[in-house]
Write a structure and sequence with these properties.
Distance between the termini: 37 Å
Number of strands: 13
Helix content: 25-40%
Number of helices: 10
Largest sheet: 8 strands, mixed
Strand content: 15-25%
Structural class: alpha/beta
Order of helices and strands: EEEEEHEHHEHHHEEEEEHEHHH
Shape: globular
Strand order of the largest sheet: 1-2-3-4-5-6-7-8
CATH architecture of the domain at 3-212 and 239-252: 4-Layer Sandwich
CATH superfamily of the domain at 3-212 and 239-252: Ribonuclease Z/Hydroxyacylglutathione hydrolase-like
Length: 332
């Protein structure tokens, strides 16, 4: 049974910054990172004793584990100012030192707040491919978030590239204050280096990029949509009750399988359209995947179609990683 210690965190900046209402798909996202999702108040839930999940519908999620020996944090948000807000939320639950930070993948909205936790003395952990992508794609990640920084009135110059201190290839086990945390890599899903954070005793997994409840995920980075779908079916079969995504609210096995089906439908629909000789613009105008129009992030569908069209017509991800990928047994 989930222990609810839900609180709504007031963000002072939100009082002075107006975020527009969601745009219709016909208006199309521009790719500058500006956010047009519903402004649902940030919510913190204790999903297991000492394990907290912060759900932020407009942006990205976080989690942290409080133990007697210190705190483990998962992902650090999209800007140092947002990271300061995350740290303030953590301090509402504990005054223990921040021992570890895990960056689940190399999208800026999950690691651009790293410097705040570096200041706190944290040791940073991630998969080897994620570390490589953070370094290789830092400038492009900054560029694709300039609209967000402008929207929030944040100074991009405050963002610094903080790379991990320790990397792993397939598995790493942490023991902190009597708690066990397993960092797992079962191959690329949404991204090379997708790090899964598994809490075996609590039957909870934080999935970062590959799974987000009822939310469209950016396909610009995946080297294989089929591997991504297979990854989701694998984690749905794990001894897990609670699935925490990088976006979207708390999920269950049925939500993981729903995303697998959504991606399968997207993959099949895109391949059929390309096989018919449809252009990228024709697919944007005529295919649309309106069955899933109520899913979070749908207003960016024109960008998702463009990036996967690039993959299907060139054989390479729109944002490819030059050193992809660390091999995993059984991975295609």
């Amino acid at each position: 049974m989930k222990l609810q210690v839900t609180e709504f965190i007031a963000v002072v900046a939100a009082l002075s910054v107006v975020v527009p209402a969601p745009r219709a798909f016909a208006q199309k996202a521009t790719g500058d990172g500006a956010v047009y999702e519903k402004n649902i108040p940030i919510k913190v839930t204790e999903v297991a004793p000492g394990l907290y999940f912060q759900y932020h519908h407009q942006e990205s999620n976080n989690a942290w584990l409080v133990t007697e020996e210190g705190v483990l944090v998962i992902d650090t948000r999209q800007h140092p100012r947002r990271a300061e807000e995350l740290l303030a939320a953590i301090r509402k639950t504990t005054d223990k030192p921040i021992r570890y930070v895990i960056n689940t993948h190399a999208h800026g909205d999950h690691y651009f707040g790293n410097k705040i936790f570096k200041r706190e003395g944290a040791t940073f952990l991630t998969h080897r491919d994620t570390a490589g992508m953070m370094q290789e794609h830092f400038n492009s990640e900054m560029k694709r978030r300039m609209g967000y920084f402008k929207q929030r009135q944040y100074d991009p110059g405050e963002v610094e590239l903080v790379l991990p201190d320790i990397t792993f290839d397939t598995k790493m086990t942490l023991h902190l204050g009597g708690r066990v945390v397993e960092l797992m890599y079962v191959g690329p899903g949404q991204n090379p280096g997708d790090t899964l954070v598994y809490f075996p005793k609590e039957r909870v997994i934080y999935t970062g990029g590959p799974f987000s409840k009822n939310s469209w995920a950016n396909p610009s980075f995946t080297p294989s949509m089929e591997n991504w779908i297979e990854l989701l079916t694998k984690i749905a079969a794990m001894d897990v009750d609670t699935y925490l995504g990088g976006h979207g609210d708390i999920g269950g096995k049925e939500d993981v399988l729903h995303e697998a089906q959504m991606l399968a439908d997207f993959n099949a629909g895109m391949r059929e359209a390309v096989a018919k000789g449809m252009s990228q613009d024709e697919i944007v105008q005529k295919v649309k995947f309106e069955k899933y129009k109520d899913v979070r992030n749908y207003y960016r569908m024109n960008l998702f179609i463009a990036s996967y069209y690039h993959f299907l017509t060139t054989g390479k991800p729109k944002t490819a990683y030059s050193k992809c990928c660390v091999p995993v047994p059984g991975m295609k």
